[in-house]
Amino acid sequence: MRQMIFVAAALAALAPSTFAPGATASPGALASPEATGSPAATATAALQSEATIQRGFDVATGGTLRVDADFGSIEVTTSDANRVEVTVSREVRDRYRDDEQQILAELPVDVSQSGNDVVVVAEASEDVRERWRDEYRNTPVQIRFAIRVPRAYNVDLETAGGSIEVSDLEGEVRSSTAGGSLRFGNIEGSVWARTAGGNIVLEGSSGTADVRTSGGSITIGAVDGTVDAETSGGSIRIDRAGADVRAQTSGGGIEVEEVRGAIDASTAGGTVRATITEQPARDCRLSTSGGSVIVTLAAGIAVNLDASSGGGGSVSSDFEIDGRVRRTSIEGAINGGGPQLHLRTSGGSIRIRQR
Predict the structure, then answer these.
(1) Mean pLDDT throughout 304-329?
(2) Distance between CA atoms of residues 179 and 162, nearest Å
(3) What is the pTM of this model?
(4) Which H or E run contains 101?
């Protein structure tokens, strides 16, 4: 997908240069310069030396915004207009202001349109990044992308370092950052999100949610489809999932207020809580290496319970068990039996409650 983005950007890289910063363009107004010495090429140099770049495009709903940036935060908002408005703000750090024009020129920003899609690419060459590391010891410029899209639009966003935020949207969302938080409003579509370090917040989704962070908490509202949430260090909270749930963390509690499918939840350190409101079609597993497991079942749910506390904690159930009941383990059928409900803890108690 990224290769397609770069091809699209390359085909249209010269087109935006025919407009000064702050100007707008219709799809038919884009024209590439014929030679580097043309007035349009001069405009390109002027554009890249400006701290703020603004572009606007008329589009139809259902298109896709693609952003690919070496670094910088990305904020996407929506409106009722069939238009994409792009504002890119670049600010050279105070201590490097003497080199401002050179630094801005070394971080080109290409904004182009292909049909109803808009592509934004901001990349410094490897030679430039190496020179920055040698001379400045860090990134000498801060960059922020503020983009407004139609309410019914798709987004595909990637930054090598910075936060990403998307407001309420009717479309598919894909986003990734090498370091920063991710926040999404109510999305009428599916969400795929990755961050190498930061919290993830999703208010809701009418599709599926597939989110992962290498270090941070995950908070999810109501999702109509399946939920796959994973963090290397932080808590996970899910208000409601209309289908199956997979939740894994290496250090933190897990809480699922309502799941209407099967659940697989595990943590290396924290309490696991879940409420299963509809009969699962597959086995469910909830486990922790350092905390309690508390499961609430709707009254008519039928499962084969296999619950055990390896740390000496108690195991108890509000349901009658057709099987073997001990202080630290229970094996048997609830409501005649069904898929397995596998519960484990190495350092806490287990409680099966009736809703």
Answers:
(1) 94
(2) 6
(3) 0.84
(4) helix 100-106
Q: CA-CA distance, 34 to 17, in Å (whole number)? A: 12
CA 211, CA 194: separation in Å to the nearest integer? 6
**What is the amino acid identity at position 140?**
P
Kindly give the residue spans of alpha helices, DSSP state H, lying in 147-298.
Answer: none
* Contacts by 276-280, CB closer than 8 A, 24 or more apart: 276/301, 277/355, 279/338, 280/338, 280/339
The pairing of beta strand 303-309 with beta strand 329-334:
antiparallel
Largest CA distance in the chain: 86
Among the ranges given (19-28, 109-118, 226-235), the one the predictor scored with the smallest mean pLDDT: 19-28
DSSP class of 281: S
Tokens standing for 314?
């108690």
Predicted confidence at residue 123, as pLDDT, reads 87
pLDDT tens digit string along 85-117?
999 998 888 888 888 888 888 888 999 999 999
Euclidean distance between CA atoms 247 and 211, whole angstroms:
10
The chain-wide mean pLDDT, for the chain, equals 86
Q: Which residues have C-beta within 8 Å of that of residue 71, sequence separation ≥ 6?
A: 139, 143, 159, 160, 161, 162
Summarize the confidence of residues 39-49 as an average pLDDT.
41
Q: Tokens at residue 165, please? A: 């935020």
User: Quick check: 322 and 337 in contact, CB under 8 A?
Assistant: yes
